[in-house]
Write a structure and sequence with these properties.
- The chain is mainly α.
- The chain contains 1 helix and no strands.
Length: 55
Amino acid sequence: MEDPKELKESLKGEKNKVKKLEKELRIKEKALAETAALLVLRKKANAIWGDQKEE
């Protein structure tokens, strides 16, 4: 059996790691949503005003 103190420290470390990864995932999800929104807006703008490359 392992020392309960070591297990507690290990668990704390793992919880911190999970928390950090969840934060990173939230940031990446927000960036992905923003990129998708910008692509949709670009597509709509091109449909309304035409593609700038055509001029």
